[in-house]
Structure formats: C-alpha cells, structure tokens
Write a structure and sequence with these properties.
Layout: H1 4-9, H2 11-20, H3 25-67, H4 71-106, E1 127-130, H5 146-152, E2 156-157, H6 158-164, E3 171-172, H7 174-193, E4 197-199, E5 204-206, H8 207-212, E6 225-226, E7 231-233, H9 238-243, E8 248-250, E9 257-266, E10 285-295, H10 300-317, E11 322-326, E12 338-346, E13 351-362, H11 364-369, E14 371-374, E15 380-382, E16 384-392, H12 393-403, E17 405-406, E18 409-411, H13 417-420, E19 424-425
This protein binds one RNA strand of 91 nucleotides through helix 3 and helix 4.
Length: 426
RNA sequence: GGAAGAGUGGCAGAGCUGGUUGAUUGCACCGGUCUUGAAAACCGGCGUACCUGAGAGGGUACCGGGGGUUCGAAUCCCUCCUCUUCCGCCA
C-alpha cells in the first residue's frame, strides 16, 4: 500500500509512475480523489477530537460536582453531554466511512516503479539485463523434454498426482524425490552461508498475515483457502517470513534482517492452460527456497543487487543456461518497485522458464505491515522489504533434466553431488 | 473438544470496591553530575498512532481484538483470540 504522504507530497512522481505501469485514465484520477478524501478525513478527525475533548472535560466536571455533593447540577450537565455524544457518534461513523473509502482507493494503487524500470506493456518489453553468456544449448536429435525424461527414468508421476489430488500435483519418486530433497538442502545451505537465518514457518496463514504482504485482497482467488478455520495456504514463503516482522520497530543496527526458508508453495493458478501447464512448467504445489531482506531505505537497492548476485551464483553452479531480465512497468507485479527475473533455458521446449524473481518493494509492504525502524532523530520510519526465490524447484528440475541429459543418462552438476549422493540418473 | 484461571508500556510487575491513571514501582535504555576512566550513587528523560501548530506546545485514541453499560472504564457486562493448569483425544 502506497504511503499517503508520497501521494500527497509527490503527486507528479506518482502520476508518472502510474503511467509507466500503464494505468487506466480512471486510475490517473485516483491521486486527486485520494488527496481530497484525505483532506476530508483530517477535518473530520479534528472536529471529532475537539468534540471528544469537550465531553472529557464535562465528564470531569460532573465527577467533581458529585464529589462536592452538587448532584442536581451534575445531573443537569448529563443531558448536555448526552447531546454531544450523539454528535460524536455521528462523526465517528462518518470518519470510519471516510477511512474505509480512503483505504479502498489507496489499496488500488500499485507501487511506484523505480526510475530504472523500462517502459513497456508486457513480457516482450522486458529488458535483458544480463543475457546468457555462453552458446545456446543444442540438444541432440534424441533429446527429450523433461516430462518424457521424468517418465523414462521413473522420476515423477503426473498420473499418480492426478489420482491423489488433481492435475498440478506431481508425485516425485526414486531419484526424482531425492533430487528434490538435494536441491532444497543445497539452496538452504547456500543461503545460510550467505548470512540468512533459516526459518521454518507455518504453511497456512491467517487473514491478517495474507493481507499484510499484499496477497489480500488482490490475489484472493490465487490462494487455497481453508474455510473452516479461515486460513490461507501460503503461495510463497515470503508471506510468513516477512510477516514475522509485522508491527515492529527495528533499530538501525538490526539491518539488514536476512531470512531464508524452504516451503512448499500453493497456487490455484486459475485461468492457466496449454503449454504453460505442461509437465513441471506450472504447478499447484511446488517447492521453493525463499530469501527475504528487511533493509534501511538507503541500502535497499544495494541489497537487491546482492540478492541478484546470490541467485546468479546458484544458477551458475548448477551449470544451467540463464539470463536476467529487468521487468518493464507493464510486466512488474503490483507490489514491486523493481524486479529482476531469472530464466533458465529449456532447450527441449525452446523457451525460457522463470525460476526466480527478486524484488524490492520499498515501503509498499512495510506500510501495510507497520514495519518501521528508528532513525537518527528517534523518529519511526518505514523500512524497505525485499525478497527473491533462491530458488523455485520445479522449473529448476525441468531445465536441469533437459540440459544435463546425455545418451548415458542425466548428469548431476558437481555442486549438487554431495546432496544427491549420485552423479547420474539412468 | 470440556472445565477453571489469566492476558497491562522493551521486560518484570501494581492497579481491577469505575472519576487528575497513559497508567505506581523495579529493571533495561538515553542524557547529565561525580570520577583519571569505569562502576556505584544521585538528577533528568524514556510508548505508539492520528489531528492541530512555523515551533514550543495543545488535543484525541490505545491496558489481547471487537462490541456494550455509564456523565465517566485498564477497572463492570458480552463476544472472539491467545496462554496456563486439569480432563478427554492423539502423531
């Protein structure tokens, strides 16, 4: 949620940010509407506070009168207070209505894109921040896509998943299951080596938690919901990890807070179809190791680049062809100020697959979450939040199988061998 | 799931027969005096959010969340949540 102060004080910047995110004409009117409504909120607040102040004073007087034994005078004042209370009640109701309306408007505004974000409307306009340096992988004539490899080596059963649950819930078996476990352990170890604190969070969260990181209300339909207990299955570890610091005030010396966690991620992916959902490309449940950082605003972009470098090393060590994109305004998520996507190349499919997304949210999440720090003057200010996948498993497995296939079998990258315990899947 | 008890400021812990209590006190923390330095001692400060004000300051709200009673509630009532203990169940 965008800070009201930014909307008020930097309206021009907000408007140009909205344009970069291809906002509709109605959306461009939003800042003015919000400011007007906020003015109304302030004046209503002032009237209400003044009224309450008078009521408080009168109540004190009534108390003293009773003590002084002047019951008649005290009782006479009660009716006066009663009238004021009616007035206050009316003001309270309208203040709440104004607040709700204001929130509803502000919540519709996306985060402001960082100045380096390229213009554009969709994926085709993303900037290739770092192209793949090596030769494009060429697979032999006998090369197979990962879903066929999975079947050939008995690594994954999509059919069994359908039987147990439904499509998008694969069952990993044998060396396929072991590969999953190896990757999780490897990614976690690397994150911990890099200084992140390992966390194992709940996989279901309550409404307030889902709201604070921005999943609610805008992505409600993408989460699995447990109606009986009013819980949501997490779509990413970002949700519980970042929320660990909800409603807190950090000291500057606490920065950077660095957290990592492995969790399965649950996504309904309503509306997906076709090649997108083939094999491991898009699942309802997949495993992911997430990294999260809470940072001082002055350092958050340096932090972002450190996270990018971390992810890049992982991909390099897995010996996968990858590239880094800087997302354009139109392709960026609602919450993000700047996002780098990592893609690995699926040669068998002839397409790049997103395996990581690393973003700086600036104060967009912390505003909703009330995550602050104390600055030099002792004032509280909103911290910046960042997160990234390091890494999302399913697609990594897909490109790992495809890129490392040989006539003898699938070769496990050297870095991963201590974790798998085998060098070859055959 | 059932029963009983409890949830107060960073922590500990008063207040809970309703009225100068945003809240006694101790610890922690910050500033100062003293000291060669430190400790101790002493003095002072020390919650968050919003409104208002150039500022100093003033005002409002908040004692687990929400609602109610009352002129007035941390204090009484209702409800939800959480924790503790006992019973039940169970990995």
């Amino acid at each position: 949620m965008l800070e009201i102060g930014i909307i008020r004080d930097q309206k021009e910047r907000v408007l140009s940010g909205l344009k970069k995110k291809n906002a509709s004409p109605e959306m461009l009117e939003m800042p003015d509407r919000i400011i007007a409504r906020d003015d109304e909120r302030k004046s209503t607040q002032t009237s209400l506070d003044n009224l309450l102040s008078r009521i408080n004073k009168l109540s004190d007087e009534i108390g003293s009168l009773f003590k002084a034994g002047k019951a008649a005078e005290a009782n006479a004042m009660k009716s006066e207070v009663a009238a004021l209370k009616e007035e206050a009640k009316t003001l309270e109701v309208s203040l709440r209505a104004i607040r709700d309306d204001l929130d509803e408007m502000i919540i519709q505004l996306p985060n402001m894109p960082h100045e380096s974000v390229p213009p554009g409307v969709g994926a085709e306009d993303n900037e290739v921040f770092k192209p793949w340096g090596g030769p494009m992988p060429e697979l032999g004539a006998s090369a197979l896509p990962h879903w066929e490899l999975a079947e050939k080596y008995n690594l994954i059963s999509f059919k069994d998943g359908v039987m147990l649950t439904g499509s998008g819930f694969p069952v990993y078996k044998n060396k396929g299951a072991r590969l999953q476990r190896a990757l999780i352990g490897y990614f976690l170890d690397r994150a911990v080596e890099a200084g992140y604190t390992e966390i194992q969070p709940p996989l279901m969260v309550n409404r307030e938690t889902a709201r604070a990181t921005g999943q609610l209300p805008d992505k409600e339909g993408q989460m699995y919901y447990i109606e009986k207990d009013d819980f949501y299955m997490i779509p990413t570890a970002e949700v519980p990890l970042t929320n660990l610091y909800r409603d807190t005030i950090l000291q500057q010396s606490d920065f950077p807070v660095m957290l990592t966690g492995y969790t399965p991620c649950f996504r309904r992916e309503a509306g997906s179809y076709g090649a997108d959902v083939k094999g491991l490309n898009r699942l309802h449940q997949f495993d992911k190791v997430e990294i999260v950082r809470l940072e001082h605003p002055d350092r958050s972009y340096d932090s972002l680049m450190e996270m990018v470098a971390h992810v890049e090393r992982l991909l390099a060590d897995l010996e996968l062809p990858y590239r880094i994109l800087r997302l354009c305004g139109g392709d960026m998520s609602f919450n993000s100020a700047l996002t780098f996507d990592f893609e690995t190349y699926s040669a068998a499919q002839g397409r790049w697959l997103e395996v990581s997304s690393v973003s700086n949210f600036e104060t967009f999440q912390s505003n909703r979450m009330k995550l602050r720090y104390r600055d030099e003057d002792g004032k509280t200010r909103l911290a910046h939040t960042l997160n990234g996948s390091a890494l999302a498993l399913a697609r990594i497995v897909a490109t790992l199988l495809e890129n490392h296939q040989t006539p003898e079998g699938i070769k496990i990258p050297v870095a991963l061998r201590p974790y798998t315990g085998f060098e070859l899947i055959n």
